[in-house]
Amino acid sequence: MASNTTSRVEFPSSDTRTDEMHRTIEQWAQDLTEQVDDAKASEQFQAWLDVQSRFHDYSYRNTLLIARQCPEATKVAGYRTWQEEFDRQVQDGEQAIWIWAPIIAKQCPGCGNSPNYHADTDCEYDETPPDEWSEGPVAFKPVPVFDISQTEGEPLPELDTDARGDATDLFPAVTGAADTLGVQVAVVDAEEWQHGAAEGICRSVDDEEEYDAAIEIKARESAAAMAAVLVHEYAHALLHKGVTDKPERTKREVEAESVAYVVGRHFGLDMSGSALYLAAWESEEPDTILDRLGRISRTATEVIEAVEECQRR
What we know:
Blueprint: H1 17-34, H2 39-54, H3 60-69, E1 76-77, H4 79-86, E2 88-90, E3 97-106, H5 115-118, E4 135-147, E5 151-153, H6 161-165, H7 167-176, H8 178-181, E6 183-188, E7 200-204, E8 213-218, H9 223-239, H10 246-266, H11 286-312
Helix pairs in contact: 1-3, 1-11, 2-3, 2-10, 7-9, 7-11, 9-10, 9-11, 10-11
């Protein structure tokens, strides 16, 4: 497996696949920390954000794996799923995309292990017998999936993508997501705007107030621009709560902009003006970078689901 961030990877050997998948994720983060000022690092980071916008309900580890193997992927499913649910067939010679899938089993409420592994731990939980434990993910295993571009057969059902990308209709749904996210939003006329060149601001509120944060955005003609600004401020409200360290707040600015990019792309907005200044992450440890990717992924998913809930009303 090459470690170059611009090359695609494959995991053909079952004997080494698990280790190679782990190393691919770790190497990606390592390369990013070493090349934050390099244009290629920014391109690779944006490529991951693009994949995350298409697979927002996947973990960041799986979207990283998809981005490294097939960055143009738009819809992935297993071999049998394509056959049985979509009447499509994976074409001969196509290379599988490997991602992680949970192994579901009875799970100890104390240590989280399956009964077999629980017996080999020091966990002393004994309030309920194993046959009464709830099921949950106890481990992860590599599973093969294929992108729709690797299949042929019946067309997929048409999706209402135009409505999702129409910012005129989208902006009310983005605004309506405020209650679900625990945020208060106000759109302020340009003549009354008191925050200089800023397009939006987010401030924490007292514990006694109903909301966790209050957001103001400047009214503009472009509904798409206002939606992008509002999502960015949502990210601040969700990511910056309780963070008082100024350098860390600067680093989370990149996270907030990344969330806005993922959510905007998911809903079909033009996010080409996003400013993803990775230099703020210079000297970060790879594990810290991966933690940031996890925050971006979880926060983007939370906002996307809140907006989609408003769209369904």
